[in-house]
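Re: the 98-residue chain
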Amino acid sequence: MINLNTISDKELTKAVALYYDGTSAPIISATGKGDIAEEIIGIANEHGIPLCDNEELINLLITLELGESIPESLYISIAYIIALAYELQGKQPAGFSE
C-alpha cells in the first residue's frame, strides 16, 4: 500500500529573493516552493541576508517571472523591507546622510 500525503499549496514553504542595485526597481532573482524555497532560505541564511516573513507579499511576488521588476503597487512595501534590511546590517544606501 502506498500512502500519498498531499500538501496543499498553502502549507508549502514559499520563498522569493529580490535583487536591488540601489537605483532601479528591485527584480525577482529567485522563487520557489517546498524544497526549492528551503534552499533559497538556506542560501540567504548562509550569506547573512535578512529575511522577511510576509505571506501575503510572498504570494503576490511568487507570481512574477524571474528577472521581472516588482510592480509599482508594491514599491512602498518593498522599500520598507529594504530599509529594515539595511538597518539590520548596519548599512546605509549610497548617498544617504542623516
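Residues 25 and 72 are 9 Å apart (CA to CA).
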